[in-house]
Amino acid sequence: MDSHSPVIPSTTSLSMAAKRPCPSQNPRAENNLGEVERRLEAFLSLSHVASLSLDLSFERLLQSLPSDSDSDLIDRALKMASLLLDAAKHSSRKRASNHNSLSWPLPPDLTIKVFSMLDTQSLCYASATCLLFSKCAKDPMCYANLDLTTLVPKVNNAVVATMIQRAGKGLRSLKLGVVPSAATSLGSCPPFVCTIRNAIVEVPNFSWNDKRSRQGRESSILTRCCLSPLSGDGGAPGALLRKLHLYNIERMDNASLGAALSACPSLLDLEIVGLHVELRQTLMSVSANCHLIERLFFESSKTGRDDSLKAQTCFELVNNCPHLTSLSLRGFKLHDCKVRVLVKGFRKLKYVDFSTSYSITGNFLRNLGSCNGGNLLEVLILRDCMHLKEMEVARLLTAILAGDFKLLVHLDISNREGLASEADWYHRCYNSSIMPTKQVLEARPDMCLVAEYPSAEGRLDSLQLEYFWILVH
Are strands 243-247 and 199-202 parallel, antiparallel or unpaired? Predict the structure, then answer.
């Protein structure tokens, strides 16, 4: 080895050196370190030399050595250059971090407070900025509200586990899955924001049914185990979780979702869109574990085919979840008798959305607005319910004129296929003469009444409608 080349210690010698006294207690080690520093300083003083001169000098050095030694010298030069580059980068980051620490105007506690207000993606960007921000961004407070939704599948189980582990028992909100992009397809249920007594009631601006044709059937890289970290560490991460929103996680099943809900006894807000889980099993899990829940939004991934709901499940949900104020069950095969148990049973219910429910006729609305459980309704959405009858809607509007549903401020009875007639649902009604729509609008100017039906050009006769329904289902 060249006598002027610095000696690079091996892993063994480094471990042995760790047991030796520090340089201040070992004069020989201190002298060696000083010699390395002097040589390094002398080497760096050559930085002003032109690159061509260095090339020529290195080439002459290689030519002066035996032919079997030149490759060894080249390897050592490359290794030394790599070590020097790493050391320079480390020192640069360290000085930049020290500079940020001195120039950043906020103390760590306020920095953490600011970071806790960022969305999850912005927090990750901030943590990669410098060591100061990275340290602050690791505080559990910053991960209380996790939003890991994406437009395309790119978040895996490991990412979810890491984020939940960072949040620990401070986790309060978790949004996860694939959220389709912007525009709503033609004829779908549009989103809206309705102000009710200074409170904002929001319907998600996407739908599995509306977006399925655009999104395709690609599988998310999230698996059925993606929510298992909620049960980790003795159940600490899920214990105080208040909000859980899950979107289009195709591999999720009933057992996995049920296990996740069992770890979330403090859940107040549950939103499920596009998961292949049964309505009955999901409501049973909510009833058994989430007794404090206030909002439940559940949209089926297979419109009109989930007929799993039982009356007993409805009774158990009503008895075990008395605080529910908002209920949305969209795209399920619901029957009036079961829906009535739910709407009448929940004494605090203000918001109801049964859009695209297949079997609802509207019979459950009879005498509902004058009794406990229905008279507190502020929003009622029955959009695109295939079996919703013209006569039942007329009875509802007449009841409103008579003074029932006094708190109702938003009613949606629109249907892109028209309303069903009393005797035969294949016969559709597009311009009813028995529904007192105009009178309701005059008597209740405070209420938003949405009643949109297809124009004459867009109507389907009964045979076309029957054939269309068979094709779809």
Answer: unpaired
Say if residues 215 and 180 touch (Cβ distance below 8 Å): yes
Do 325 and 356 have their domain in common? yes
Beta strands per DSSP E along 85-228: 145-150, 173-178, 193-196, 199-202
> Do 99 and 172 share a domain, yes or no?
no
Burial class (CB in 10 A: 0-12, 13-18, 19+), 251: middle
Instruction: Kindly state whether residues 329 and 380 are assigned to the same domain.
Output: yes
Query: Where do runs of H (alpha helix) occur along 346-382?
Result: none
Average pLDDT over residues 315-339: 95
- Do residues 250 and 338 share a domain? yes
SS3 410: strand
pLDDT at 9 over 50: no
Q: For the chain, what is the mean pLDDT?
A: 79
Confidence at residue 365, expressed as pLDDT on a 0 to 100 scale:
92
Q: What distance in Å separates the CA atoms of residue 81 and residue 73, rounded to the nearest whole number?
A: 12
Residues above pLDDT 70, as percent of the chain = 76
Whether residue 405 contacts residue 376, with contact meaning beta carbons closer than 8 Å, is answered with no
* Residue 354 CB-density burial (10 A; 0-12 exposed, 13-18 middle, 19+ buried): buried
Query: Measured at the alpha carbon of residue 367, what is the angle toward residues 361 and 369, in degrees to the nearest 5?
Result: 100
Are residues 315 and 361 located together in one domain of the fold? yes
CA distances 412 to 23, 113, 355, Å, are: 80, 42, 9
Co-location of 137 and 149 in the same domain: no
Q: Which domain holds residue 239?
A: 145-180+219-471
Side-chain half-sphere CA neighbours of 67 within 13 A: 0
The per-residue pLDDT for range 256-282, each reduced to its tens digit, is 999 999 999 999 999 999 999 999 999
Q: Indicate if the pLDDT at residue 457 is higher than 60.
A: no
Contact between 262 and 289 under an 8 Å Cβ cutoff? The reply is: yes
Same domain, residue pair 138 and 166: no
Of 143, 166, 191, which residue sits at a domain end? 143
Tens digits of residue pLDDT in 373-390 = 678 899 999 999 989 999
High-pLDDT (> 90) share of the chain, %? 43
Per the structure, how many domains does the chain have? 2
SS3 category, 245: strand
For residue 230, is it within any domain? yes
Domain check: are 161 and 137 in the same one? no
